[in-house]
Specification:
Distance between the termini: 94 Å
Radius of gyration: 36 Å
Largest sheet: 9 strands, mixed
Number of strands: 22
Helix content: 40-55%
C-alpha cells in the first residue's frame, strides 16, 4: 500500500477532523492565495525581498476572513460529506471577509508599517481562496465516495425527483457505508424524462420500466415518502414490480417527512401489504377534537383491543383530565398500562380488568369517576365464534352495551360513541345482528332523551366501518402466520371481497364522528375501494418471496361474499367530513323495545341457541342467515304466513309478540313494511 493510501485510510477511518484543523486548512488556503496573487502582480524577487513584512500584512488581512469563517461556522462541516449548503456558507464567509478587508485597506493605505496592497488584489485573492476552499471540499468528498464506497452496494432506482427524491439520494450518498448505489430516477413528469441528475438519468414511469430495471441489474425501487400515495393508486406499477421480484423500499416513519431532511438506510424498510392497499389520506379537525376531549374524564371500553388501544393512544394526545380503561383481557390491558406509563406518564390513567356485562362493577366505575365521554369499543367480533355462541353475543355485545349506555344516561355522560361494524348492515350472522341490536338500543335511547321521555343530556353516536388492517384475527396477520409455517394460505372463496382501513385511520374517524355528532346518528365511513382477498393473498406471497399455495376452504358460517357499508348516496346523508356519512335507517321507539331487550337477555341465559337466534331475527327482520344452521329459521319464517297479515300493530302489541316468541313480521312484508310495523 502506498504512503498516500495510508494517509487517506487514516483520515477516513476517523469520524471527522476537529474544528480547529478545518479552520487551519481554510486559513492556510486563503493565505496561500494572498501570496500567490501578490507574487503574480509584483514578481517573485520583490515578494522574496519583503517576505516577512508581507506575511505580517497578509496575516492582518487574514483576520478579516477569520471573522467571516466564525460568523458562518465554515469549520463545523465534515469535508467528506460536503454539500451545496456547505459551499454556500464558505461563499458567504469569504464575501464578508472581503468586505472587511476592503474596509481595512482604506485604513492601511497610508500606513508606513504595512505593505501597500491594491484593491484589485484583494478581490482576486478572495475569489481564488474561495475556489481553493471549494475545491478542497469537493476533492475530499469525491475521494471518499470513489475509494470507500461499498463495493457490494445494491443498485437502486428512486421513485420521485422533485418530490424529495433528490434529497433522499443526497442523504444516502452522504453516509459512510451506503448500502445502495443510485442507478437512476423514476418520474411521472414528462418534462423530466431523459434529464441527468446527480450523474444518473431520469426515466419515465411507463410500461418499459421493468425491462429497464432488469437490464441495469436493479433489484430495488426506493419510493420517496412524498410519492407513496401515488404508488398506492398505481396498481399496474405495483403488480409489475411484484411480478418481477423487484423489492419496494419505503420510509419507515410514522411522522410525515418534510421532503428536505436526511434519510438513512435504517429508516428504510421493504414495503408490506398494508402500504399498498389503495386508500386516501384521512385528515380530521384537530382543533375541534381537542376542544371536546381536552380536560375531560374519558372512559374507553375494550381498551386492550386493536381498536380500543388505538383510541387510547389518540385520545391521550389531547390531554384529557383522566382516562378509565376497561377490558376483561388482563395481559393486553397490562401492555396498555405499560404503554401509558412510558408514553404519557403525566396523564392520570386507570386500567381496570372487568366485564362490561358486570352491572354492579360498571356502576361502581361510573359512580367513582363520572366519565364525561364514553368510547365503547368492547365487543365479541369473530363471526364463527359468535355463530356457535349466540348467548354470549347477547350477554356481552347487547347487554354489555345496554348496561354502559344506561349508566351513561344515569350519570349524565356528555357523549357516548359506540364502535359498530359494517356486518350490522343487513346482517347474515349472529355477530353482525348483535351489533345491529346495539345500534337500535342506543339510537332509541337518544331519541327518547330528545323527546323528553328519558331525563338526561347524553348524546349517543354510532360509528360503523369495515375491516381494519392488523386487528386481532384479521386476514393479514393470519396470512403472515400461514406464510411463516410454509402455507397454504386459506381463502374462503375466490370471489370474496372486503373493505380495509388502517387502525389509526379508523380511530381518527371515530374521534371526528364523536366531535361532529349531535346524537342519534349512525355514522358510516367511506372505506375506499374493496379488495379481493385472493388478490391480497397473491400479493403477500410475492412480497414474502415464499413458495406457498392458496387453498379455498369455503365460506364460514354466517360469512358474506361482500360486506355492505351503506355508503351509497341514496341511503346516506353527507356530513362536513367527506369520508363520513350518516346512514338513513329506521328508528325504534324506546318504550316498545325495553321489554324486548329484557326478554332477549333472559333468553340468552336459559334458552338454546336456536331459540335465542329466533328472537334476534324477530327484532331485526332483515337478519338473514347464510351458510349457517340458522337458515332453518328463515325457512320457518317463510312458511309462517298470516301471523300479522297486513295489519299494523301498536308498539305494545309488537313488544308482547316478541316477548311471547311470536313472529311479528310475515314473509309477505318487505323491509319497508317491517319498518311500518315496528314504528
Amino acid at each position: 500500500m502506498s504512503y498516500f493510501s495510508k494517509i487517506f485510510n487514516w483520515y477516513f477511518s476517523k469520524k471527522s477532523l476537529p474544528y480547529w484543523a478545518i479552520a487551519l486548512i481554510d486559513c492556510l488556503l486563503m493565505f496561500v492565495s494572498m501570496l500567490f496573487v501578490y507574487s503574480i502582480n509584483n514578481g517573485l524577487i520583490t515578494t522574496a525581498t519583503i517576505f516577512w513584512p508581507l506575511c505580517a500584512t497578509m496575516g492582518l488581512y487574514l483576520c478579516c476572513y477569520i471573522v467571516g469563517f466564525r460568523l458562518f461556522r465554515t469549520y463545523s462541516g465534515v469535508f467528506r460529506y460536503s454539500s451545496f449548503i456547505d459551499l454556500q456558507r464558505v461563499s458567504s464567509a469569504v464575501l464578508i471577509g472581503m468586505l472587511i478587508a476592503l474596509a481595512l485597506h482604506s485604513l492601511l493605505i497610508h500606513s508606513e508599517f504595512f505593505i501597500n496592497i491594491r484593491i484589485r488584489a484583494i478581490i482576486i485573492w478572495s475569489i481564488m481562496g474561495l475556489l481553493m476552499m471549494w475545491s478542497m471540499r469537493v476533492f475530499v468528498k469525491f475521494l471518499h465516495d470513489y475509494s470507500f464506497a461499498n463495493k457490494n452496494a445494491e443498485k437502486i432506482f428512486i421513485y420521485g425527483v422533485r418530490d424529495g427524491g433528490i434529497a433522499i439520494a443526497k442523504s444516502l450518498g452522504n453516509q459512510d457505508t451506503s448500502k445502495y448505489t443510485l442507478s437512476g430516477f423514476i418520474t411521472d413528469e414528462p418534462e423530466m424524462f431523459g434529464r441527468m441528475l446527480m450523474g444518473v438519468t431520469v426515466y419515465a414511469n411507463d410500461t418499459n420500466l421493468i425491462d429497464l430495471m432488469k437490464r441495469k441489474g436493479v433489484k430495488k425501487l426506493l419510493v420517496s415518502p412524498l410519492r407513496t400515495e401515488r404508488l398506492r393508486k398505481s396498481p399496474r406499477m405495483i403488480n409489475d414490480l411484484i411480478e418481477a421480484d423487484i423489492k419496494i423500499l419505503i420510509y419507515n416513519q410514522e411522522q410525515e417527512w418534510d421532503g428536505k431532511s436526511g434519510i438513512n438506510t435504517q429508516q428504510l424498510r421493504e414495503v408490506e401489504i398494508e402500504d399498498l392497499l389503495p386508500r386516501e389520506k384521512i385528515d380530521i379537525d384537530i382543533d375541534a377534537t381537542c376542544r371536546q376531549l381536552s380536560g375531560k374524564c374519558i372512559l374507553i371500553t375494550g381498551a386492550a383491543g386493536s381498536i380500543g388501544s388505538e383510541i387510547v393512544r389518540q385520545v391521550s394526545i389531547y390531554a384529557p383530565s383522566k382516562l378509565i380503561l376497561v377490558d376483561q383481557a388482563e395481559t393486553p390491558l397490562h401492555d396498555v398500562r405499560l404503554f401509558m406509563a412510558r408514553e404519557f406518564p403525566e396523564l392520570e390513567a386507570y386500567t381496570i380488568v372487568a366485564d362490561i356485562a358486570h352491572k354492579s362493577c360498571m356502576a361502581d366505575i361510573f359512580e367513582k369517576h363520572r366519565p364525561q365521554y364514553v368510547f365503547h369499543a368492547a365487543a365479541y367480533k369473530h363471526v364463527p365464534m359468535m355463530e356457535d355462541n349466540p348467548g354470549e353475543a347477547i350477554h356481552n355485545n347487547v347487554e354489555g352495551t345496554r348496561i354502559i349506555a344506561d349508566l351513561a344516561v344515569r350519570y349524565n355522560t356528555e357523549k357516548f360513541v359506540m364502535v359498530s361494524t359494517d356486518k350490522a348492515v343487513n346482517p347474515t350472522n349472529v355477530m353482525g345482528c348483535s351489533k345491529r341490536i346495539c345500534e337500535i338500543y342506543v339510537q332509541a335511547l337518544d331519541k327518547a332523551i330528545k323527546e323528553g321521555k328519558v331525563m338526561s343530556k347524553t348524546q349517543f353516536v354510532t360509528t360503523r366501518f369495515g375491516n381494519v388492517l392488523g386487528s386481532n384475527g384479521s386476514v393479514i396477520p393470519i396470512f403472515r402466520e400461514q406464510i411463516k409455517r410454509g402455507g397454504p394460505l386459506t381463502v374462503t372463496h375466490p370471489d370474496i371481497i372486503r373493505y380495509f382501513m388502517l387502525i389509526p385511520e379508523a380511530c381518527k374517524l371515530v374521534l371526528e364522528a364523536g366531535t361532529i355528532g349531535n346524537g342519534g346518528e349512525i355514522f358510516v365511513f367511506d372505506m375506499g375501494e374493496p379488495v379481493k382477498i385472493v388478490d391480497l393473498a397473491k400479493r403477500m406471497i410475492k412480497l414474502s418471496g415464499a413458495n406457498v399455495q392458496i387453498q379455498f376452504t369455503g365460506l364460514r358460517d354466517g360469512e358474506k361474499l361482500y360486506e355492505e357499508v351503506l355508503n351509497e348516496k341514496e341511503i346516506t346523508l353527507p356530513t362536513v367530513h367527506p369520508k363520513i356519512m350518516i346512514a338513513k335507517v329506521r328508528e325504534y321507539d324506546y318504550d316498545s323495545i325495553v321489554g324486548v331487550y329484557d326478554a332477549l337477555y333472559q333468553s340468552s341465559l336459559t334458552e338454546d341457541n336456536m331459540s335465542i337466534v329466533r328472537r334476534m331475527k324477530q327484532l331485526v327482520p332483515e337478519f338473514r342467515s347464510q351458510h349457517s344452521v340458522y337458515e332453518a329459521l328463515d325457512k320457518e319464517r317463510l312458511q309462517d304466513n298470516g301471523v300479522l297479515g297486513n295489519t299494523l300493530v301498536s308498539p305494545s302489541e309488537f313488544e308482547r309478540r316478541i316477548i311471547d316468541g311470536a313472529h311479528p313480521v310475515s314473509s309477505k312484508h318487505t323491509t319497508e313494511k317491517a319498518e311500518s310495523v315496528i314504528e
